[in-house]
Structures are given as structure tokens and as C-alpha cells.
Amino acid sequence: MITKKDVEHVALLARLKLNEEEKEMYTRQLNDILKYAQKLQQLDTDAVEPTAHVLPIKNVFREDEVGDHLPNDKALANAPEKEGNYIKVPKIM
Amino acid sequence: MSLNQMTAHELHELMMKKEVSAEEITKAVYDRIDKVEDKVKSYITLTREQALETARKVDEKIAAGDKVPPLAGIPIAIKDNICTSGVKTTCASKILYNFVPPYNATVMEKLNSQQAVMVGKTNMDEFAMGSSTENSGFHVTRNPWDTERVPGGSSGGSAAAVAADECIAALGSDTGGSIRQPAALCGVVGMKPTYGAVSRYGLVAFASSLDQIGPFTKDVTDCALVLNAICGHDPMDSTSVKYSVPDYTQYLQNDVRGLKIGVPKEFMAEGLNPEVRKVVEEAIATLSNLGAVVEETSLPHTEYALPVYYIIAPAEASSNLARYDGVRYGYRSVEADDVVEMFMRSRSEGFGEEVKRRIMLGTYALSAGYYDAYYNKALKVRTLIKQDFDKAFEKYDLLLSPTAPGPAFKIGENIDDPVQMYLQDIFTLSVNLAGIPGISIPCGFVNGLPVGLQFMAKPFGEGTLLRAAYTFEQNTEFNRQRPAL
User: Fold this and answer.
1) Which of A17, A32, A75 sits opposite B348 (nearest CB)?
2) A56 inside 8 A of chain B by CB
3) Is B404:B449 a contact under the CB 8 Å cutoff?
4) pLDDT tens, N- to C-terminus, chain B (485 residues)
């Protein structure tokens, strides 16, 4: 059972700011969805390997060669605020 | 029949015979858009000038006597989560309302190399999360067959654009059914290729182990032509598979004799609209009459696919969507004194309700203390679901089912009940969990609304899907019907 406090904790982890109404709604709806997910507990999966990915790819290597990269102006073109060759953000400390 | 109603292969032939020009085709498409777009609202962005310019270049080549590729001069719509260099790519989200990608997705490079004509960017559920296109941050797209109803989703704009003849073909993406379900609800052909068959480079990530780009077309032949264009290994996508891409048109054979098709009984049971069931049973009879061997089979873990999906997809999404923080691109809230407040406000103001719901769900499922109970459990059950398919494909060439549990529903009908909306994908999402290919083709109507038939095949079995779909299409008339807009 998820409480409003859990929702507040998860929202902080997810960097979301929720208003009271949203907290109530997500508490109710996450409980509905997770109740549905409880169905999975019916299955005994002790001997089953998890599938995070359907392909048998372990790692993909390539030669360490210098390739093309985006020029600075293109890389910065979408930044909401910038100064010179930097992205500008509000104070961090 | 006007040009915008025709298929790519028909138009290619007309262009090569110099009976029509690419410019005329592109103009016919925009004339149609000018006429019906107010009612359907398939698009977020139109790229008219650029499209006409590409079309004219194709005409110059043809005039010079050059042979052009099959998609040259063919107007194609692109889902707005596929990056298009210099053209806004929003994912139908306010958080990316002004994002202009500095590069093309690999599928765009591939279409451009054929000189296909991009018509515009299509509407979708925000970040591809939804089954109705009602979750778009900008506007609702309407089903061309009944504008009071949804086109399905999340690639609803692409499906509606093809159905309304506002383009010749389209690209979408499919994470749990987002190509096949809207294709079914709009009465067009839609395919989700095998995981790894098409590069995801430049596809804005939703759930990386499930996402795949695929085509919407007006017939199965065009589906093969678009697959030919977009499939293949890409060093830019580490999950793309090295395989030799066949010419998919070789599978367009009007012959299903001896083909073994299994119908999972779990897909014909609970939650299926009885009239849709009847239409699908008629389709099964058609295939049997054409010589296919159709039998009932079982995928015993089917009932667990939905809860598995709604743990795995949100978990992956919560991680993928962490990048939207208002720093490097997209929406930034101006009302923040420090950087963490800026992240939180930008995300809360930029994301819509469903996206936040899934980020919350995924973050919870991955958080300390719940990881094993939810996420790891879901990964294990995913293995069981995949094994069901492996076993079924030892015996059958294909599996068959309805694509969606019912025809298009009314706008607003399911919007307040997430679980009800998630049930829309009940017949499609196992395919993504197993990584196999699936196709939806028109197979009939219920009260004037299209019904889709889904074929599923083993990994890289696209050829078998095309063969069965092509045979069904050649022996029926459903794909030739057009909505009266």
C-alpha cells in the first residue's frame, strides 16, 4: 500500500514538484496499478533468469578513433540560457 | 482516385512513366491537408517548402532519365519523436516545445538517401505514452473514420495521416503497440519490426529495451518497400543487430498454402469485443480457405504481460526521462532561485499528467526496497513470456490475434482510468516484451469502424509476416476502403 508520504518521497527522487491534488491522485492511481502488478507474485520465479534485454549482446566495442562531433554553436543552439561557450544555470551552491 | 490516395508503388510507376511528377504528388498531399487537417489534426509541424524542394529535385532526376529509388518523391509523415535535423521534434511534450535537433535519426538519413519527401511531423501521446493520442501536450488527433473517436496511439497522428490520405506512408514507433494499435483503429497497415532490426539512433527514448521504429502504409507492398529503406545494422545504435537485410518484396507472394498459424486462445478470450471476435474469426476462415493450417494454441503467461510491461516500461522511462532538466535544451522554468528548484519546476511544468504518472511508477519500482519485488520480478516473468513464444514458434510459422480488444473508442472515454487505457495494448505488448516482429492489417469493420488483424513471427520473421499479410490483402478488399471525411 502506497501512502501519500511514499508519493512525496518518490516525487523527490524523480525531481518532480507535485501539488496536493496531484499527490492525492497519484497515491490512488499508483495503488491501483501496483495492485494489478501484484498478480506477478503468484508465479514462482526462483529458478528463472531475468530478461533485461532480448538480444544476447553483452558489450559492443569499436575502434577508438576520433570521429566527427557537433560544433559548439550547434551543441549550444538549444540551450535555454548561455554565456559564451557555456550553458548558464541558476546558482548551484 | 486522386494521387494522395494512391500507394507508393503505384506512384513510383506513374513517375517512372512520366505520367505524374513528384511535385504534383506532393501538392496533392498538401491540398488534402489543407482540406481535412482541421478535422483530423494529424500533424504538429508541416514542412511544405522543404517538401516541394525535395520533390522538384526528384523530378529533375527523372527528367534527366535517371532511375530513382522506390521511395523517391513519395510523401512520408514522421512521428514527432524521430529527430529531424533543423525541424522541430517535440515528442508532443511542452518540455521539448522548441527543440530543434542538430542531427538526423538514422531512419531519416536512410529516407533522405532515397529522396523521400517529408510531409511533416505527426502528433502522438506525449513521449509515446498512451494509446489514444489524447495525451499530446498540444492537441487531440481524431480518427478519420469517426472524428468523435480516437485514432489510437501513441502514433495516432501517423496512423490518421495515412488513413486520411494526408500522406502516402508514415513512420511511427512501437513500445507496447504504438504502431499496430493505431494502425488497427485507423484501418491501415502497421508493422513493428524485430527488436534491433531498425536503428533507434535519433528516436527519442521511451523504454529502450522495447522501442522500435516501423512503417504505416496503405498496403502490404508499401510496408515491404519502407522496411527495405529503414532496416539494417547501424554502428550508432549498440542494440542494432548485424544481419543481412533481404529484399522484403520477395516475400510478397499470394500463397499461404501449408503455412502453420497458431491462434493463442488467451488472445481470443477476456476483454475482447464480441463483434471484433467475429471479424477475426472470419479472417481465420479466409486464411484457412486459402490453404493455411490454422490451429488454437496457448501462450500461458499472457495474463502477466500487462503487469510486466507496466513495470518495465515505466522503469526504463523514469531513467530515460531524467535527462529533461531544463539545462541543455527544451523548457526551463524561470521561477527558480537554485538549480535543483529549476530542475523540479521545469520537469513539473513541462511534463504532462501521464508522463509524470509513469515516471513516478518507474521510480518507485526501481527504488531501494522495491527493486526485487517489482522490477526484477517483472524481468523474470518477461523471460517466461519470451519462452512461451519460443515454444510456440517451434510448432508454428506465425501466430495470429486481433490487434486491439475493440474498435476505436470515443474521445474522453478512457482518459480518467489508466488501467482501462493500458488494457488497449493487451494483445500487442507481449510482442515487444519478446522482441519479435508483428504486423497489423485491416481485416473488417464493426459499425463502420476498422478492425485490425495481427500476425506475429519469430525474430527476423518479417518475411513470413509480409507473405501472410499480402495473401490476405490480395484476397480481400478491406485495405481499399476510405473514410468519408
Assistant:
1) A17
2) no
3) no
4) 899 999 999 999 999 999 999 999 999 999 999 999 999 999 999 999 999 999 999 999 999 999 999 999 999 999 999 999 999 999 999 999 999 999 999 999 999 999 999 999 999 999 999 999 999 999 999 999 999 999 999 999 999 999 999 999 999 999 999 999 999 999 999 999 999 999 999 999 999 999 999 999 999 999 999 999 999 999 999 999 999 999 999 999 999 999 999 999 999 987 899 999 999 999 999 999 999 999 999 999 999 999 999 999 999 999 999 999 999 999 999 888 999 999 999 999 999 999 999 999 999 999 988 999 999 999 999 999 999 999 999 999 999 999 999 999 999 998 888 878 888 899 999 999 999 999 999 999 999 999 999 999 999 999 999 999 999 999 999 988 999 98
As a whole number of angstroms, the distance between CA A50 and CA B368 comes to 18
Residue (of A13, A68, A86) closest to B365 by Cα position? A13
Coil/strand/helix, residue B262? strand
pLDDT tens for residues B349-358?
999 999 999 9
Alpha carbons B355 and B92: distance in angstroms, whole number: 11
Rounded Cα distance between B107 and B85, Å, is 12
Per the structure block, which three cell numbers stand in for A3? 501512502
Sign (positive or negative) of CA dihedral B469, B220, B79, B460: positive
Which amino acid makes up residue B135? Answer: N
For chain B, how many structural domains are there in total?
1
- Closest Cβ opposite residue A55 in set B239, B359, B361: B239
Of the candidates B191, B186, B177, the residue with the CA atom closest to the CA atom of residue B141 = B186
Q: Best of B201, B311, B360 to disrupt the A interface by mutation (most A CBs within 10 Å)?
A: B360
State which residue of chain A sits closest to B312, comparing Cα positions: A52
Element (H or E) spanning B25, and its range? helix B22-40
The answer to whether B178 is a known catalytic residue is: yes
Ramachandran area for residue B306 (φ above 0: left; ψ -120 to 50: alpha; else beta): alpha
DSSP-derived letter for residue B473 is: H
The reply to whether B26 falls in a domain is yes
Q: Do A53 and B337 touch (CB under 8 A)?
A: no
- Per residue in B467-483, pLDDT tens? 999 999 999 999 889 99
Q: Measured between CB atoms, does A6 come within 8 Å of chain B?
A: yes
- d(CA B210, CA B127) in angstroms, rounded, equals 14
Residues B234 and B219: their CA atoms lie apart, in Å, by 27
Q: Which of B57, B69, B48 is nearest to B22 (CA)?
A: B57
Phi, psi of B189 (to 5 degrees): -90, 130
Residue B246 sits in which domain range?
3-255
**Does B348 participate in catalysis according to the annotation?**
no
DSSP letters spanning B353-377:
HHHHHHHHHHHHHHSTTTIIIIIIH
Q: For residue B337, give the C-alpha cell.
A: 532561485
Task: Give the closest of B325, B383, B419 to A33, CB-based.
Answer: B419
> Cα distance from B329 to chain A (closest Cα, Å)?
5
Q: What is the CATH number of the domain that holds B109?
A: 3.90.1300.10
- Cell readout for B335 is 521561477
Domains and CATH numbers, chain A: 1-42 (1.10.20.60)
Of B108, B107, B79, B80, which is closest to residue B94 (Cα–Cα)? B80
